[in-house]
Amino acid sequence: MTSRQTLSPTLADIEALAQAAVERLPPLFRDHLGHVLLRVEDFPDAEVMAEMGLESEWEILGLYQGRHVGMKGDEPSGVLPDMIFLYRRPLLDEWCEGEDSLEAIVTHVLVHEVGHHFGLSDDAMEAIEAATN
Fold this sequence. Notes:
This protein is mostly helical. It has helices at residues 11-24, 27-30, 46-52, 88-97, 102-118, 122-132; strands at residues 37-41, 62-65, 83-87.
């Protein structure tokens, strides 16, 4: 993204911000994300909305799907890879309504979802986020 950008950030723009945030994570965490897929979509699909009990697709900024690190080992057959989803349109809405940069919002959501991958508490996630800034 450039400072003169006049169009909404694309899926690729959000992914680039998220990848940059991953690179700022402490190596201990970054090294264990190699097999976690990062996906950026405009909105969650109907299945996610039903599973999460969401009334609107605007209610969720990101989602971790998978088994946290402490549950790894004997993987059931047919298990999908662990994935972190970021939802572009709700992220942009949050950005437009607030005072934080889009980079800060994407980083915050990404760190929170990475925390779910590691089975971390909210306090631990806040400490990791502070280290990425």
